[in-house]
Amino acid sequence: MSPFDLSGRCAIVTGANTGIGQAIAVGLAAAGADIIGFGRSSMTATADQVTATGRVFYSLQADLSQMEEVRTLIERATALRPRPDILVNNAGIIRRADTIDFTEEDWDAVMDTNLKSAFFLCQSFAKMAMAEQIPAKIINIASLLSFQGGIRVPSYTAAKSGLAGLTRLMANEWAARGINVNAIAPGYVETNNTTALRADTERNADILKRIPAGRWARADDMAGAAVFLASHASDYVHGTILPVDGGWLAR
Ligand SMILES: NC(=O)c1ccc[n+]([C@@H]2O[C@H](COP(=O)([O-])OP(=O)(O)OC[C@H]3O[C@@H](n4cnc5c(N)ncnc54)[C@H](OP(=O)(O)O)[C@@H]3O)[C@@H](O)[C@H]2O)c1
Q1: What CATH code would you report for 10-243?
Q2: Are the CB atoms for 211 and 250 separated by under 8 Å?
Q3: Percent of the chain scored above 70 by pLDDT?
């Protein structure tokens, strides 16, 4: 059997309705996993693509900026059969403004969704996996701003740098307990998240010039790394932040 085969596995993907989350959900399904999407918008487009691979898709509606909803989500997912053994923390937002003017509202909104809810989903997922004594994989969606400073996105940089740190910390605590915690750091990907950036002709040209691969990533460029980190092929990989960036960080 292929070491990348995910037959019999089940993955939670947050923010599975669009962009990178949708592409990862479909990629994991194509490798054999059933999918549970967590999100606040309709996930029918993803459901259609997942079921076309022959896998099952469940959706659980939740606003991941709200802790009272986050607290019960893993329990709700575990009640489904099959029980999830992969968690992909993908949902995220970005707020852009000059740092000198950055508001507390823009700080809290990004930190709550991108960092706090991701941390507590990891915690409740790991608790469930330890209680049920199943091996499990956690994949956090980090960013180039887990490595670099960025411009005009202070809460996003703080959240993504924090998520990389937490990925390493959780790996340290949970590696010996059968849970792999890793992250993917996407480069510049054509999704809703980057519409404003791509619309800025000057910034867009600067970005493109610096990408060794010579193009923006498509969301489905992230799927292979997710399959790897979800599969047995990565059983001895812990606490890594895997850039999928067209070579950006190598430059
Ligand atoms: N695009 C890039 O270049 C890039 C680069 C590095 C990292 N990333 C990261 O990749 C992840 C996915 O981003 P994307 O580029 O695919 O952007 P996207 O198309 O804007 O997707 C973001 C996803 O997060 C969901 N989400 C946001 N806030 C939520 C909330 N409060 N509750 C539930 N779901 C929520 C969105 O749901 P709605 O559709 O309902 O808003 C959507 O499904 C994010 O963590 C982002 O930071 C993106």
Answers
A1: 3.40.50.720
A2: no
A3: 100
